[in-house]
Design goal:
This protein is of the alpha+beta class. It has seven helices and eight strands.
Length: 222
């Protein structure tokens, strides 16, 4: 899903109001065949229909017309467009240097004062989950650079690091490589290893309770 959305919304060619019929090769699906995506968008709201039949373009067009007409008749399509416009405006005018934690995960659960960000990777599902990056581009770039450094350290050749604590003038971080997962926790300023470790345990507990919702599993096939 993330690969598909990134392809559509990071390219202006798909958001021009035209119809597109694109072959897809997705991880963990048929390595010898393609899925095909019908893509149509209006004002950054896209309708994406996927088929295993390469000749299904016109059928997908009919489905799109039926769904779009029904949403328009009920007034839902205009509400979706309006919501997207309001959301974009709010993001531009009210940037925040901190993450917005998922509503089900509070700072009390994590126990890390000044928590800036976290990333949890399920090695079994080969997927990861994390909150949105900070709206501040400079802060986001620093975070991504830090994640690259932390990943390089714990995955260096001939190393078997399970816990890695990092501190700098700007950030403190802890990486926990556990059984079937990796958890990266980042806070602002100097935060002790014990505090970050408690935060990482809180994040891991929360992810495990929400695993069915956060990750795609169940062996979907086409």
């Amino acid at each position: 899903m993330q690969l598909l959305f990134s392809m559509v919304f990071n390219s202006t060619s798909f958001l021009n109001g035209n119809e597109h019929w694109i072959p897809l090769c997705l991880p963990k699906f048929n390595a010898k065949g393609f899925l095909h995506a019908y893509i149509w968008a209006e004002d950054s709201v896209a309708m994406i229909l996927i088929s295993a039949d390469k000749n299904a373009f016109f059928n997908m067009r009919q489905v799109k017309e039926k769904v779009h007409n029904e949403l328009t008749r009920n007034g839902i399509w205009d509400k979706v467009l309006s919501s997207v416009r309001r959301g974009r405006y709010m993001m531009c005018t009210q940037p925040s240097p901190h993450i917005s934690l998922p509503t089900e995960l509070s700072e009390a659960d994590v126990g890390v004062p000044g928590l800036l960000h976290f990333m949890y990777k399920s090695r079994l599902q080969v997927q990861f989950t994390m909150p949105s990056l900070p709206a501040n581009d400079r802060q986001s770039n620093r975070l991504l650079a830090l994640y690259r450094h932390l990943h390089t350290v714990v995955h260096a050749r001939r190393t078997h690091i399970k816990i890695f604590h990092y501190t700098s003038r700007r950030f403190s971080a802890l990486v926990w490589v556990g059984s079937g997962f990796e958890c990266y926790t980042v806070a602002e300023g100097r935060v002790g290893r014990g505090v970050l470790a408690r935060g990482a345990r809180g994040i891991v507990r929360w992810v495990r309770t929400e695993e069915a919702r956060l990750f795609v599993s169940g062996g979907v096939v086409f």
